[in-house]
Write a structure and sequence with these properties.
The structure is a single chain. This protein is α+β, with helices and mostly antiparallel strands and 690 residues long. The chain folds into four domains: 121 residues, Vaccinia Virus protein VP39 (Rossmann fold); 202 residues, Hnrnp arginine n-methyltransferase1 (Distorted Sandwich), CATH 2.70.160; 130 residues, Vaccinia Virus protein VP39 (Rossmann fold, 3-Layer(aba) Sandwich); 170 residues, Hnrnp arginine n-methyltransferase1 (Distorted Sandwich). The chain has 17 helices and 34 strands. Strands 6, 9, 10, 11, 13, 14 and 15 form a seven-stranded antiparallel sheet that branches. Strands 23, 26, 27, 28, 30, 31 and 32 form a seven-stranded antiparallel sheet that branches. It has a five-stranded parallel sheet with strand order 3-2-1-4-5, with helices on both faces. A hairpin with a 2-residue loop joins strand 24 and strand 25. Belongs to the class I-like SAM-binding methyltransferase superfamily. Protein arginine N-methyltransferase family. PRMT7 subfamily.
Length: 690
Amino acid sequence: MDDTFQDSASDDGGFDLQQEIARSAFADMCHDWERNQKYDRALQLTIARLHATGQQAHVLDIGTGSGLLSMMAIRAGADSVVACEAFRPMADCAERIIAANGMQDRIRLVKKRSTKLLVGPGKDMEQRANVLVTELFDTELIGEGALGTYRHALQHLLTEDVLTIPHQGTVYAQVIECPLTLSWQQLKTLSNADGDILLRVPPEVATCRGSSAVFDIQLSQLPMGSFNVLTDPIPVFKFNWSKHQELINNRQEQSVCYARTSGFPQTVLMWWDLMMDKEGDVLLSCAPYWAHPDHETLKQKHAEQASKQRRPEGNFIPWRDHWMQAVYFLPPLKIPLQRGQQFVLQSYHDEYSLWFGVGEQAATNPLSAPHCTCGWHIAQSRSRIGQLNDSLRNKRYLNYFERVFSRDSVVLVLSEGSLLGLAAARMGVKQVLLYEPNAISRRCMEAFVEHNSVPNVHFLPSADALGPEQASSITHVFAEPHFPSAILPWDNLHYGDLLKNLRPLLPTNVTVIPSSGTLYALPVEFLDLYKINAPLGSCEGFDLTLMDQLIEKHSTYADSPVEAQPLWEYPSLPLAGTVRLMEIDFVADFEQSKIEHGELCVSEPERLNGIAVWIDWHLDKSHSPKTTISSGPLVPVEQSSDEPIRWNVNWRQGVHLLRKHPNRKGTIPWTVKFNPVLSNVYFHFDYEDQ
């Protein structure tokens, strides 16, 4: 075996910290050229306007990160700059970056939270600042505590006439009807190929409002034909960052709307923009492409450059992953709207979160923030709920069940939250044994059993709960497979480990479904995703190579070479056909370590910046498309193409992002190792120069 693989990271107490550094969004933000240029321009305008009126510019930079905004302030002519950063590894790095750019004598770096800063002669700040520049925002704008941080700064650290950069934030909402997004929230009735209902959704599940956690998403990649726009974008909240009295935690707004088309209001799409300076000369928008103020201009500019690269409609606007857009699910009231009909959008926020409701008239009682009451949105991820609602996937499973199950079948289900396992019971098998070690997931499944009067179902709270007599009667072992702890698709190989441990109890002729899984890889050119892992070098004229070194060092230690991403949100172009890496057999040799080698042959290797990896589950030995469940592309990729890959939207795929240039030879040697003890897979792609 190849001993260059690490089966696990050493536990020296620093792993979590190193992983936090590796996965921080500092580099991602610095790759956001629009953000950088508009912060830079706003600083130039603001400081110049102060100087034009005879005032000095004393700048406070809260959460300086790399120190970039502080250095921009010095370059723009600030008379003094105080920068604070509480995350010590980043603060130490910023200190070195500022020195490397020759500004160590002009920027005072304080390694504290802004709420701990002291003002006065000889203290952290000699005087209150009259310019605040900061980036405290997330996808929800206020989710990182911006309201509290601004209020404290305005009260304790800033002058009454302070100019804030940005000056104002505006939150927009757009009401849509969208079965696709709703499929990630509400479970659907499960029916067989003939339309016969197998499982109905319990009322407490159907009416649950779901999780309060923000659902951030790259809205520009949402297929335009997948939703019906019911309103124009509506400005629902404004935040004036320089007005202490306006930055309150709890607000509600009611906006009268008129339906653009007929439909059911199901989902609210949300984004925000920032007015960067007080005069309103600089605007930074996080809108999806159809609402972005610069979309047409940027699209035309791309056309004038005569670029050979074919870009999807949603990829002309500036790309960023640290600020995305968000999806909010409306209460499941099923209010039908006719074109032109008046209704009211209800918008709410507290200190950290947003939520929305709709009604035919203004609400008299405020709508509380959503929280899951049914358990499904706690036990399962949104993508998992999407899998459970995937009609094509379900059809393949159910058609296979009809072929292999009989009234004498006893089925052991080694997946968590498997409604397909319950469906097998409804299809008339003798008994279904459901492995459900998680108490919340088990209660969710019990509710389905009770509501649908499903017979002959027995729950196993652990694998050890399977007795010898029960085990000896099992005719089939079935898994989707799915386990909530899985992050990457092949993390569900835990199924094989469970099966291996139960093997001594099971009949020798038991049928195992799926019988195997195959790992595949595809070399790609990501249009934008590569930026989250790409070195910065210089940024807006400043040397940030020290931050590159910090992130690379900790990423090498703490991060897997393959990370999970929902690749449908990140357009990519194939640079070769799909390559089979390894097949893992659950029947014959799961207990054996495996290692395989091969090569990826890449067309136009100068375009290569990532390698996508996924797994297909084979229900039987035929490997037929009709008995294969794939977590990868919807359409097989057989060669390089300028057509973006169509990925399964209900799975996260694996992706290896290149930090260094490939060898340009067009051939990437690879090695894959499967460790059955840990039920894990390890990858190595050798694209560096020798």
